[in-house]
Amino acid sequence: MPQHPLHLPIYTLNKLCLAPHIFTIAQIFSFLFHKMPNQDICSYLTEPRLVTRKFLARPQHEGVGAVVRRSIGRFELKYFDPFLVLDEFSVSAPAGFPDHPHRGFETVTYMLQGAVTHEDFEGRKGTIEAGDLQWMTAGRGIVHSEMPAAQGTQKGLQLWINLSSKHKMIEPRYQEMLSKDIAETVVDGIKVRVIAGEALGIKSPIYTRTPTMYLDFSLKPGAHLQQLIPKSWNAFVYILEGEGIFGNQKSQPVTSHHILLLSSGDGLEAWNKSSKVLRFILVGGEPLGEPVVQFGPFVMNTQEEVDQTIDDFENYTNGFEKARHWRSESAINLDY
């Protein structure tokens, strides 16, 4: 006789499905007592998201000598509310991203290989190593640099997330996590690192001012993932390595460096039918539904606000005061 579902441990319920979900008592009883062969309780995805658009992120030059594969923020996809930019970057010294400003959004840096040194005009300095995360809220203004901290090629992802009008001028803040502190688990051939949000029963402590999920999945050959996504959110997949099938089992496999925009629905299904590991990020966010006016690293709601931001930066006012006498150590040493 199966254990009474009300007494099932949380871990057991999580094992029943590859994403957090609230089951009704009727659903649990139906699964435990009336489950037919090959029936899967994970059929709670009543409206799986499909792939609506697909782009290959091609290499382009950015910063000083750096190479990025830009998938959001390119001419075909200027903005995917609330996401402004997604870059997969590759940089070797002395190339990099020397002193530059930001206002009006957040930058999320997630290192895949090597390390970069981060400095800002508040005197903060640190190294973001492979697997580490830096979630930087630029708010009313930051001037900083991001430069290689090791020999060879440094690789990572940088995501820009827009802030709502009421948050664009908040004070800057950082949330940083070492690789060893990022929530991680493995279930049925699926490994997930939870950068933001939750998956497979674990949750990230990162606070997202613009509600966001950011999940790093690795699927072994034969693995099948179902992951809930809030219905009202926009979501996309970016493939880091391997090839996978997304949204519909009959779809053609998609390979690395592609971004997949997902339709509306309650979650994502993905399959790894290849002989190698499939690794991808799944990112979703609540759309802001506000006008966007962007001038490079400044993202506001109106042209007047952008003009004021440029004036503030050029005159070292309204959040940029400390930029007047600041240069990063990297800029001084490399004479940028």
TrEMBL record:
InterPro entries: Pirin (IPR012093), Pirin_C_dom (IPR008778), Pirin_N_dom (IPR003829), RmlC-like_jellyroll (IPR014710), RmlC_Cupin_sf (IPR011051). GO terms for molecular function: metal ion binding. Its cofactor is Fe cation. Belongs to the pirin family. GO terms for cellular component: nucleus. The lineage of its organism: Eukaryota, Viridiplantae, Streptophyta, Embryophyta, Tracheophyta. It is found in: Nucleus. This is Pirin. Keywords: Iron, Metal-binding, Nucleus. The keyword Lipoprotein does not apply. Residues 68-161 form the Pirin N-terminal domain. PANTHER family: OS09G0484800 PROTEIN (PTHR13903:SF23), PIRIN-RELATED (PTHR13903). Pfam families: Pirin, Pirin_C. Transmembrane segments: none annotated. It comes from Sphenostylis stenocarpa. Residues 214-318 form the Pirin C-terminal domain. Binds 1 Fe cation per subunit. It comes from the Eukaryota. Fe cation binds at H100, H102, H144, E146.
